[in-house]
Amino acid sequence: MPDRRQPDPSTDDNPFAAPPEDRPDQPWQPRQPQRPQGPQDGGGSGSGPGGGPGDPGEGGGPARWDPMDPVQRRARYALLSGMWGFFFGIFGIPSVGLLLGALAMYWGISALRGRPATDADPGGLSALGPAARPQRAAAVSGLVTATLALMLAAGSYALQLAYKDFYVCRDDALTRTAELKCNTLLPDNTLGKILRVQR
Question: Can you tell me the distance from the alpha carbon of 102 to that of 110, in angstroms, rounded to the nearest whole number?
């Protein structure tokens, strides 16, 4: 039976393989992506700008989404609220669509504005560097869907005001025949054909 503690050339790249017996114990360190070293790297020590493990610059790669950051949370909230507000507007629930659209608009604008930036503390999405791109895209998408949700809600309320007699007649009708008679209160155009009670 072979000795498992001996180094095996086939497991040199295996991070879970046992180290050789003559190698001393080393403390755990996070992995960093390898990048070619140039003259501007200063010897490749990794301690300069862009070389730290948590630096969102070139050395450590973009930082991941931090749910503890309020600016990043607002960007995600804007996207989700705007999307659901748009869906509720399509499904004919304008009150919920209006609420979610207004929340998405507020969260999206606050995420894009962020905190006032200074030389020492950039703040907001600008502090993330390359990682700010998906968060900024989420905030902008939330603003777009929020605008659509608000337009759908406003259009629905405008129709209810313009054709108030039809909606009151339809809601007060007790039978299907009475609902069909309410169609006479609609104009004879494309919009009237869409809103009328179908047989």
Answer: 12
CA dist 129 and 3 (Å) reads 49
By CB neighbour count within 10 A (0-12 exposed, 13-18 middle, 19+ buried), where does 75 fall? buried
DSSP H helices, 91-131, are: 94-113
Residues in the chain: 199
Answer whether 48's CB lies under 8 Å from 58's CB.
Answer: no
CA angle centred on 87, ends 86 and 91, rounded to 5°: 120
Q: What does the alpha-carbon distance between residue 138 and residue 115 come to, in Å, rounded to a whole number? A: 18
Cα–Cα distance for residue pair 65/78, rounded to 1 Å: 15
Stated pTM of the model: 0.57
From first to last of its 199 residues, what are the pLDDT tens digits of the chain? 555 555 555 555 677 777 778 877 777 776 665 555 555 544 444 444 444 444 444 444 445 666 777 888 888 899 999 999 999 999 889 999 999 999 999 999 988 887 644 455 555 666 556 667 778 888 899 999 999 999 999 988 998 888 888 888 888 888 888 888 888 888 887 777 777 777 7
